[in-house]
Amino acid sequence: MSRQQPRPRPTQPAEAGIRRSALGRGGPPSPVIGQPLPSPTLTLDALGKKCPIPIIMLAERIGEVRVGQIVEVLADDPAAKTDLPAWCALKSQEFVQASALPTGWSFLVRRSY
Amino acid sequence: MAYFDAASAEPLHPSAREALLAALDDGWADPARLHREGRRAQLLLDGAREAVAAELGCRPDELSFTSSGTQAVHLAVLGTVQARQSAARGPGHLVASAVEHSSVLNAADWLARTTATAVTLTGVDGLGRADVAEFAAAVRRERTLLACLQSANHEVGTLQPAAEAAAACRAAGVPLMVDIAASAGRLPVPDGWSLLTASARKWGGPAGVGLLVVRKGIRWREPFPADDREHHRVPGVPNVPAVLAAAAALESASRERGSEDAALRALVARIRAAVPRAVPDSVVYGDPDARLPHIVTFSCLYVDGEALVTELDRAGFSVSSGSACVADTRQPSHVLAAMGALTHGNVRVSLPRDVRAESVVEFLDVLPPIVAKVRETVRAANASRSAEPPQEVTT
C-alpha cells in the first residue's frame, strides 16, 4: 500500500519585514528543496490535536518501525514546530525535517535506536 | 501553600506599602503646579527620582517614570529609532535578541509594519544566552539605529552577555537599549547602556510604574503626541504615590540583596537538582550558574501545561508557564522556541523575597505525583480518542 496524497512542496513561512536569522536554532532544520524526501514507514495524523498529544503519539508508536526507518507526524498545533525537534533531542532520536502543509506541518523522525 | 511567580509580580514590599500610604496623603496633587500642594508632590517626586537614579547609577534628569515597563520599552525603542531615522539615509535597521520581552518584539514588529524599518532578531544558544558574534554582526550592518539586549532572561533566568554586546555597539556607534526588568533590584545594572527600561512590579513596587532612562547625549525624540511631563519623554502626570512606593521598594530590595541573594540561589539550585531526579522525562532550562537568583524553568514531557498549572494551584502553589495553552496568545513561549526547548509541560518557578525553604521542599514533594497524574489523564484521554477508527496510514 502506498500513500495516495501528493506531498506538497515545502514552503518557508513569510515573516513580514522581520529577519529571524537564527531563530529556533535548536528547531527544525530548513527543508532541503530539490532532494528526494525520505519516505515514511508510518504516518501519524495528529492534525487538530494540541501538544503534547502529537509527541505522545510519536513516543507510543515509534517502536513500531525498525531502527533507521522514518515516522511522519502530521500536526497543526504551532507548539509542535518546537516540540517535535525538542523531543528528538531529548530522546536522542533523529529529527530529519519539517515541511509546511496547506494546514500544519509534516515532521519526519528517524528511529535511531 | 506558596506564591512562586515573583517574575510576573513580586509581592508589594512592606516599605513600598508604607510609602504608598503616606504619599496618598501628601503626594496627590499635580506636581507641575506652583501651589503648596503641588510643590509638596514635586518634592516627593524629586526625592523618588534621586533615589532611583542613585540605585541605577544614572543622573536624575536621565530618568523618567512611565506608567508601565511596557510603556517604557515602547518609548525607548520608538523614540530612539525615530530620532535617528531622519538622519539615516533610507530605512533603518533594528537589532534585538530573539528572547527579548514581548514588549520589545511588539515594538519592533510595529516599526517593521508601519515604517520600513528592517528588524533582525538574533539567535540564542540552548541556555537562552544571546549569540554575541551574531548580535555584533547584525549591529554592524549599515543604518543600524538601535540594538536591544535584556540584562537577563525573564523566563529561564540566564544572564545575557551585556559587556560584549555593549562593546560591539560602542565600536559600531549604535545605541544599546538594555531592558533590566528581570534583574533590577536583584543584580547591579550592567555597564555600557544607552537606554534602560524596567518595571517596578518586578522588584516589589506597585503595578503601574515603569522606568525609562535615556543617557545624556543619546538622540531620542518623543514618538507620540508631546507633553511637558517627565523631561518631555512620557505623556501624562506621573502617579506620585506609586512612584514613591516603587523607589522605596527598590532601595529596600537593593539593601536586602546581600542576604536574600544567597538564600534564593540555594533554593533554586535545590529545585534544579531535584526536578530531573524526581520527575522522569523532565528537563531544566537556563544557565546553571550565570543566572538570576530567583528564576528556574523546567519542562515535563507528555504533560499539558495548563493542567499542570491548575493542579499545582489546587495543591497551593502559584507558578507560571510558557506552554501555549497557558499563554494569552495560545502561542508557545518565543523564548523556549528560540532555545529549541520543549514548550509543553512547562513550569516557571520564580521565588519571592520572603520565600520559606519549607515551601520549596513541599513543592518538590507534590510535583512528581502531580506530573504523574496529569500524564495519566492526558494519556488516557488520547487512548480513548484513538479507540475510534485508526487514522494512521501504514505502508
Keywords:
heterodimer, A: 113 residues, alpha+beta, Translation Initiation Factor IF3, 2 helices, B: 395 residues, alpha/beta, Aspartate Aminotransferase, domain 2, Aspartate Aminotransferase, domain 1, three-stranded antiparallel sheet, 10 helices, 43% helix
Description:
The complex is a heterodimer of chains A (113) and B (395). Chain A is of the alpha+beta class. Chain A has a domain at 42-110: Translation Initiation Factor IF3, CATH 3.30.110.40. Chain A is 19% helix and 24% strand. Chain A has helices at residues 53-61, 79-91; strands spanning 18-20, 42-46, 70-75, 94-100, 105-110. In chain A, strands 2-3-5-4 form a 4-stranded mixed sheet, covered by helices on one side. Chain B is built from 10 helices and 13 strands. The model of chain B has no long low-confidence stretch (mean pLDDT 94). Chain B folds into 2 domains: 13-252, Aspartate Aminotransferase, domain 2; 257-379, Aspartate Aminotransferase, domain 1 (Alpha-Beta Complex), CATH 3.90.1150. In chain B, strands 2-8-7-6-5-3-4 form a 7-stranded mixed sheet, with helices on both faces. By secondary structure, chain B is α/β, with parallel strands linked by helices. In chain B, β5 (144-148), α6 and β6 (176-179) form a beta-alpha-beta unit. Chains A and B meet through β1, β2, α1 and α2 of A and α4, β4, α9, α10 and β13 of B.
